[in-house]
Amino acid sequence: MWKKKGLIFSNNKYGTGYAQDPFIDIVSNDIWRIYYSTRTKDVVSLPFCIDVEANNPSKIVKIYDEPLFLPGRSGTFDDTGITMTSIVNVGKEKYIYYCGWNKKVTVSYSLSIGLAVVKEDGSVKKMFEGPILERSIYDPICVSAPCVIFDEGLFKLWYISFTSWEDYGGRKEPTFIIKYATSLNGIKWDVSDNVCIDSTYRGESFARPWVIKDHNKYKMWFSTRGPVGYREKDGQHYELDYAESLDGKVWERKSNEFKLEGKSNGWDAEMTAYGTVIKGAKNYFMLYNGNDFGKTGFGYAEAEILK
After folding, report:
1. 39-66 pLDDT, tens digit each
2. Which residue in 4, 46, 97, 159 could disulfide with 262, CB within 3.0 to 4.6 Å?
3. If pLDDT is split at 50, 70 and 90, which confidence band does 9 have?
4. Model-level pTM greater than 0.90?
């Protein structure tokens, strides 16, 4: 059973409050680093982090008040924003996978997947000016929200692929699915038509998948929403969902096996989204966003590790 523990942090550097898509990197036995992205008033996403006490994410140790790296020059895949979504240890360095934002004309935006590296000294730099995964014959519209783990000698990636932009009452909205890819080096990816999580009704869409391997089983937390009014107070908002797999490719949705218990205290009363999970010393810890896609910041929940 997952129990809500409350709000941790929101970022007001730009007067917006956003602290989206949080995830934890275990820096040491004492410190966990939480990476997240905030927004400027011009709706440009920028990457930030804070340090918290290990196994106690509500205890903030340090707040870093400058972006870790910046959007690219005009015309590149990330020239209008950066949203980090996962991290992987690679030798003495770490790879951060992120979404690069582009504004468009016929639709409002497009996304591709980029890669940054955390050096031994803790500095963060883009590895390439271009994306490591973008539109292709397998993903003709957009790719986004990468979650990467290293498992069985392979880098394994679960990501969002756009299948369409459809009109709902004069407004175009994207429809997403969750897909899977593999890599030998974490940079060049083998993609396919394989769909891990597909919609169950017209317009159902998903947000950032998060996968861990636990007791020889792959476990995925993701967010699901409908296409109507999901930006408004009483619309079809994102809610956290859950699925399991034996091989990482074929998944079974098990919504009834995941539930957040506890009061919302307002900040997450209307939405729960972008959940990420790690194993701590005694509990599982989940970071997640609340209302308005993370405008109210991020909080956490805990679940007991069952032996």
Report:
1. 999 999 999 999 999 999 999 999 999 9
2. 4
3. very high
4. yes
Would you mind telling me the total number of residues written for the chain in this entry? Answer: 307
Give the number of C-alpha atoms closer than 13 A to the C-alpha of residue 45, restricted to the C-beta side: 24
Q: Which amino acid is at 41?
A: K
Domain layout of the chain by residue ranges:
2-6+90-304
**Residue 297 token pair:** 């910041």
List Cα–Cα distances, 264 to 10, 16, 267, 278, 300, in angstroms: 16, 21, 6, 22, 11
Q: Is the pLDDT score of 307 beyond 70?
A: no
Q: What is the mean pLDDT of residues 92-108?
A: 95
Does residue 306 surpass a pLDDT of 80?
Answer: no
C-alpha of 292 from chain center: 15
E strands, 120-204, in order: 124-126, 143-151, 154-168, 171-183, 195-197
Q: How many CA atoms lie within 13 A of 207 on its CB side?
A: 26
Pairing of strands 217-225, 205-214: antiparallel
State the Cα angle at 180 between 177 and 183, rounded to 5°.
150
**How far is residue 213's CA from residue 97's CA, in Å, rounded to a whole number?**
19
The answer to whether 267 and 7 are in contact (CB under 8 A) is yes
Q: Pick from 86, 143, 40, 62: which is nearest to 274 by CA? A: 86
Measured CA to CA, the distance from residue 213 to residue 98 in angstroms comes to: 21
